[in-house]
Amino acid sequence: MGNGRHWGRSFLTIAAGAAISLATPALFAQPARGPDPNTTSSVASPDSADDTRRAEAAARKKAGDEAMDAFRFTDALAAYSDAYAITGDPALLYNMGRALQALNRFPEALDKLEAFDAAAPAELKARVPRLPALIAELRQRISTVTISTNIEGARVLVRNTAVGKAPLQKPVRLTAGTAEIEIDAEGYFPAKKIVELPGGSAISVHLDLFSKATTGVLAVKTSAKGAEVIIDGKRIGIAPLELNLAKGSHRVVIKHPEYRVYETSAVVEAGRTKIVNATLETPSIVTRWWFWTTVGVVAATGAAVAIIAVSPRPADTGTIAPGQIEIPSPPAGGPMVISF
């Protein structure tokens, strides 16, 4: 509701006297004429029928203005659409565009404002001096997307809303932001892709469909995040993932830097989904890089200690200068004693 109220205020301030009252005098200012008093026919004349339709259009236009004032933008859009269906007045294109903008339906809003810009006379557009700026602002909120597939007649959906069947006749205008694009067809696996739609830019998205008669789906899930999936020797992506494969046996390899390599064979059946749930195992201690690094350091340290232990030591030189030892004469008959 917050966005709605924001655009509602924008409508009332920017378009005061323009969006709310953009109506040509020829369509809404003429008083309705009553039936001819001289006729007794029960069938209304063409003039009276036109007057009735003009009055109905004027009433719906007024209802739309009141709904905009009350921030009831869905009701306003319905009322303006009713009035436009009766009169074809280009002023109502502008009013519908502003109601759609308030509802955050930007692609449709841009369509209406561009239609108003193309159809309205100069004097009417002069009453909306910010029209070019409004159109430019909406274009920045919209991405133009070309969607294609390999199967003609396939249904194309964006954000769970059908936009047509392949091949689409022209690019699709979509509100910028994250969107899931899906394509499906009878007898084929549906294809989905999540894309980021850039505002003010154009992109192309192609999705292939695969026959359920000749292919199946392989879904790979792993117990650890970030595991790389390799199928039949080709790197596919990071688990979890799904992909279409030809029916038959396929070699699945899963790699993760913190776990042992996981290998298995998966038999994919046509038209069915095969799920591989891989529980990755941690490697033994002797296979971890840090184990061998530690062993190397310990081994190097032990070798150094061993070298030091077995290396011969040089002879001590002593601290007594040569010729400084005095040897006293031994007592008669006694041993010689050397004192330090």
Name of the top-level CATH class of the largest domain: Mainly Alpha
Could you give the count of β-strands? 16
The radius of gyration computed from the alpha-carbon positions, rounded to a whole number of angstroms, is 43 Å
In the CATH hierarchy, the architecture of the largest domain is Alpha Horseshoe
What is the percentage of strand-forming residues? 25-35%
The H/E string reads HHHHHHHHEEEEEEEEEEEEEEEEH
Strand order of the largest sheet: 3-2-5-7
Looking at the structure, the CATH topology of the largest domain is Serine Threonine Protein Phosphatase 5, Tetratricopeptide repeat
**Tally of individual domains:** 3
Low-pLDDT residue intervals, each spanning 5 or more residues: 1-21, 23-44
On the 0-100 scale, what is the average pLDDT?
A: 81
Helix content: 25-40%
Specify the number of helices: 9
N-to-C CA distance: 107 Å
- The class by helix and strand makeup works out as alpha+beta
| Cα shape | elongated
Largest sheet: 4 strands, antiparallel
Produce the secondary structure layout:
Layout lengths: L1 H13 L10 H4 L17 H24 L3 H15 L3 H12 L3 H14 L2 H4 L5 H10 L1 E8 L5 E4 L2 E5 L6 E4 L1 E8 L3 E2 L1 E7 L4 E6 L2 E2 L3 E8 L5 E4 L2 E5 L2 E6 L1 E8 L6 E7 L4 E6 L10 H22 L30
Parallel strand pairs: 1-8, 10-16
Antiparallel strand pairs: 1-4, 2-3, 2-5, 5-7, 6-9, 10-13, 11-12, 11-14, 14-15
Helix pairs in contact: 1-5, 3-4, 4-5, 5-6, 6-8
